[in-house]
Amino acid sequence: MKTLVLDACCGSKMLWFDNDNPLTLFNDVRSLDTTLCDGRPLVIKPDTQEDFRNLSFADGVFKMVLFDPPHLNKVGDGAWMALKYGKLNDDWKSDLTKGFSECFRVLEDGGVLVFKWNEVQIKTKEVIQCSPYQPMFGHISGKRADTHWILFFKNSAMSKSASKHSEAA
Ligand SMILES: C[S@@+](CC[C@H](N)C(=O)[O-])C[C@H]1O[C@@H](n2cnc3c(N)ncnc32)[C@H](O)[C@@H]1O
């Protein structure tokens, strides 16, 4: 059953109503059980521990993929935010391009990719450029209106490499 939905970088699964959702394969590159400086526990316990830049799953196996990668590149390695959310490398454009590409590869045609981005250091517009597909629609939320929820639909008409005119014809 755990082949319907992939959470490509689940972290501590804060956004899940059921963090043991039976339809979802929870993946993260890290596995961690620690305490943050303010005493809050931080548990990252994925089903699989893979790098979203190079996933082992076959093409098109998931109906939905959630992609909520780290959004900070200017943060100390030991800072609680880096511990909780991970940290981008200097080469984040290349990493997120590979991440998007892998998430779309394992997503079936007609599947949905949900992307979440916190626009505190890097513009959402810049990050969307890393995706091989155009976004469909989105919503901005959060106290400071910096959390962007964006939905992609895997269809050749939405592929950036496709000519929209020839696809529509
Ligand atoms: C913003 S957090 C995810 C938060 C999560 N959605 C939640 O609800 O708590 C980003 C996560 O991406 C993970 N990550 C960073 N680089 C990764 C990679 N190359 N492959 C897989 N996971 C990665 C980090 O370990 C971190 O847990």
Can you tell me the CATH topology?
Rossmann fold
pLDDT average, as an integer?
A: 93
Structure classification: alpha/beta
Describe the sheet with the most strands.
Answer: 6 strands, mixed
- Stretches where pLDDT falls below 50 for ≥5 residues? 165-169
| Alpha plus pi helix count | 4
| Amount of beta strand | 25-35%
Q: Give the CATH architecture.
A: 3-Layer(aba) Sandwich
Q: Would you list the SSEs in sequence order as H and E?
A: EEEEEHHEHEEH
| Small ligands present | S-adenosylmethionine
Main sheet strand line-up: 2-1-5-6-8-7
Name of the top-level CATH class: Alpha Beta
- Estimate nothing, just give the exact number of structural domains: 1
Which superfamily, in CATH terms, is the homologous superfamily? Vaccinia Virus protein VP39
The coarse silhouette is globular
Q: What is the number of strand segments?
A: 8
Range of helix content: 10-25%
What is the gyration radius calculated from CA atoms?
16 Å
Give the N-terminus to C-terminus distance in angstroms.
38 Å
Could you explain the architecture of this structure?
By secondary structure, the chain is an alpha/beta fold. It has one domain (5-168): 3-Layer(aba) Sandwich (Rossmann fold), CATH 3.40.50. Helices cover 18% and strands 26% of the residues. It has four helices and eight strands; from the N terminus they run E-E-E-E-E-H-H-E-H-E-E-H. The protein has helices at 80-85, 92-106, 124-128, 164-168, and strands at 5-7, 24-26, 32-35, 41-44, 62-67, 107-118, 137-141, 147-153. The strands form two sheets. Strands 2-1-5-6-8-7 form a six-stranded mixed beta sheet, with helices on one face. The radius of gyration is 16 Å and the shape is globular. Mean pLDDT is 93; it is low at 165-169. The structure holds S-adenosylmethionine.
